[in-house]
Amino acid sequence: MLIERQNQILEIAKQSGRVGVEGLAARFGVSAQTIRKDLNELCERGLLDRVHGGAIIGSTVENVGYEARRLIAREAKQAIAQAAARLIPDQASILINIGTTTEEVAKALQDHSGILAITNNINVDYAVIGVSAIEANGDLMDYDYREVSVARTIMENARQVILVADATKFERTAPVRIAPMAAVDVFVTDHLPDPAMRA
């Protein structure tokens, strides 16, 4: 069983993707050695992965390979992509993060005219975001803290954020939090399993 400090360390790692020994020692008012012991125990349990100076969130659930994910809920992803593409007018600028559903959105935008696709960090009209999982409380989750960092930046630099996700995302879990559902302006999906998610 984890002690309270270790639970808090896990929560911090879940929020930011990475934790540092020195920062945690200062935050909890304990020695760096105590934090190292906590991190080592969390790593032994498979909850974190050690890196120089700290740890990163570990995945207790393996993500499916990209090519295999393309086949999961393919028709739903295509329908979601068509609906999301209808939300984006011609002559708009757009950022799209990595993912099989967002890839379908990019394909669905091929008939739009004057679309400016942006790959670096500037303000855009629309951001289309895909996620690996959606928790019951509405938190948007992913597997890789680096991808989460990119998704957060994209969301911060868009006037409107469009989330695209098929219903299987409600059945999955992932270790790193991107943002709450409230950070999304429009959610395009094939099915909402819980009426509370509509609020």
Summarize the structure.
With 199 residues, the chain is an alpha/beta fold.
Explain what you see.
The protein has helices at 4-16, 21-28, 32-44, 66-71, 74-87, 100-108, 145-156; strands at residues 18-20, 48-51, 54-57, 93-96, 116-117, 124-130, 133-134, 140-142, 158-164, 176-179, 186-188. It is built from 7 helices and 11 strands. It folds into 2 domains: 4-57, Arc Repressor Mutant, subunit A (Orthogonal Bundle), CATH 1.10.10; 66-198, 3-Layer(aba) Sandwich (Rossmann fold). Helix 6 (100-108) links the parallel strand 4 and strand 5 (116-117). By secondary structure, the protein is α/β, with parallel strands linked by helices.
Number of helices, where a helix is a run of at least 4 consecutive DSSP H or I residues: 7
The residue-averaged pLDDT reads: 86
> Nearest-angstrom radius of gyration?
19 Å
Beta-strand content estimate: 15-25%
- Described by the principal axes of the CA atoms, the overall outline is elongated
CATH class of the largest domain: Alpha Beta
For the record, the CATH architecture of the largest domain stands as 3-Layer(aba) Sandwich
N to C succession of SSEs: HEHHEEHHEHEEEEHEEE
- Helical content (DSSP H or I, runs of 4+): 25-40%
Count of the domains: 2
Q: Tell me the major beta sheet.
A: 5 strands, parallel
Secondary structure class reads alpha/beta
Largest beta sheet: strand ordering: 5-4-6-9-11
Distance between the termini: 36 Å
Per DSSP E runs of 2 or more residues, the count of β-strands stands at 11
CATH topology of the largest domain: Rossmann fold
Q: Low-confidence runs (pLDDT<50, min 5 residues)?
A: none
GO molecular function, one term: DNA-binding transcription factor activity
Organism: Symbiodinium necroappetens
Pfam family, one: HTH_DeoR
Keywords: Repressor, Transcription, Transcription regulation
